[in-house]
Amino acid sequence: MRPGASEAGPVSNVRRRQLSALLLAAALPLPRAVRAQAERPRYRVIDFDWVDAARARAVPSRLYWPDAPANASVPLVVFSHGIGGSRQGYSYLGKHWSSHGVASLHVQHIGSDAAVWRGNPFGVVGRLQAAAQESEAIARAADVRFALDQMLSAQTGAWGAAVDPRRLVAAGHSYGANTTLLSIGAQVMRQGRLVNCQDPRFAAAVVISAPPFYGETDLAAVLSPVSIPTLHVTATDDVIEIPGYRSGAADRLAVFDAVGDPRKLLAVFRGGSHSIFTDRSLTGGATLNPQVKSATADLALAFLDLTFRDDSAALSEWRQTWQPILSRAPATRFASSVHA
Question: What Pfam families does its record include (predicted)?
């Protein structure tokens, strides 16, 4: 209670907030995941247990494949999880995208996956810090490249043959967003040498809750080489709390501003949390959480329409639908979004 406030004031405020939440929940559409529960899944899930022999590193991956005609040309997203994640994570994105004709390959990074949570609990901080080392960041980008190589090879048969090589999209959340940025051209200098992990096959990227490049003082120098369209998603309460690696929501905006290519969009949800974009169901609030998930999955599809078809209709509709939970909405044209 604030000093000097009466008991009736906070109670009334709580009731007003509860009523507002109920009205907002009623006004917004149900998440697609809820609407589709009674429907037959329009996708397949296939697990690959790949090993990169050249690096002696396993690269487990999970593919969400759309129920598409045999002769279809399918866009592909290659998704990188956050620290402590796995190929099973971010399933709401894989299911949603593949249900709408976009395949999604979720890559697991062995050096920074769910294993950091296992073992002696007193060692978890050390495991997290080890997973955040630069060598692992570079290895993650190599995982993404290797997984894409495998996906497009004869090993995956008809699936790989059906992927449209002109519509390849890098995507990731948190540490995976950094991995994505490295994969699309972000560069750092180390001991006078340029560290470049770019995979030129990617034509667009979805960057969710990107941390800063810790230790880099000139973010523009790191991100100005990015030369493909990017979608950036965050929330006003998007805060990373890892010992030695704290990062606030302002860092997500700084990453967006520093990306060199003007074909970029930014969406900021009001409230939320850093982990609201994972499969966790309650972070950011039981009401907001599924809305943000549904909105994020839909926004990525609208972004791909704009990027690959020059069609902004879905983005305009998205803005109208989700405006009540947005702090900042993407513009309908790339160039103007920089100053939105």
Answer: PAF-AH_p_II
Backbone angles phi, psi at 84, to 5 degrees: 85, 10
Structural domain includes residue 1: no
**Three-state secondary structure call for residue 164:** strand
328 by Cβ neighbours in 10 Å (0-12 / 13-18 / 19+) ranks as: middle
Chain center to CA of 309: 22
Coil, helix or strand at residue 230: strand
Question: Whole domain around residue 216: which residue ranges?
Answer: 30-337
Helix, strand or coil, per DSSP, at residue 225: coil
Nearest to 340 by CA among 272, 267, 241: 267
Q: Is residue 17 part of a domain?
A: no
* pLDDT tens digit sequence for 266-291: 999 999 999 999 999 999 999 999 99
Residue 115 has pLDDT above 90, yes or no: no
Sorted by sequence, the CB contacts under 8 Å of residue 35 that are 6+ apart come out as none
* Selection from 234, 170, 176, 155 nearest residue 201 by Cα: 170
pLDDT of 206 > 70? The answer is: yes
Predicted confidence (pLDDT) at residue 24 exceeds the cutoff of 70? no
Kindly state whether residue 46 falls inside one of the protein's structural domains: yes
Asked if residue 23 is part of any domain, the answer here is no
Say which residues have a Cβ less than 8 Å from residue 55's Cβ, sequence separation at least 6. Answer: 139, 142, 146
Question: How much is the pLDDT for 33?
Answer: 44
The CATH number given to whatever domain includes residue 154 is 3.40.50.1820
C-alpha count within 13 angstroms, C-beta hemisphere, residue 19: 6
Average pLDDT over every residue of 191-202: 88
169 in helix, strand or coil?
Answer: strand
How is residue 184 written in tokens?
């699309």
Residue 322, phi then psi, degrees to nearest 5: -105, 5
DSSP 8-class letter at 240: B
Count of Cβ atoms closer than 10 Å to residue 223 Cβ? 25
Report whether 291 contacts 255 (CB < 8 A): no
Domain count, the chain: 1
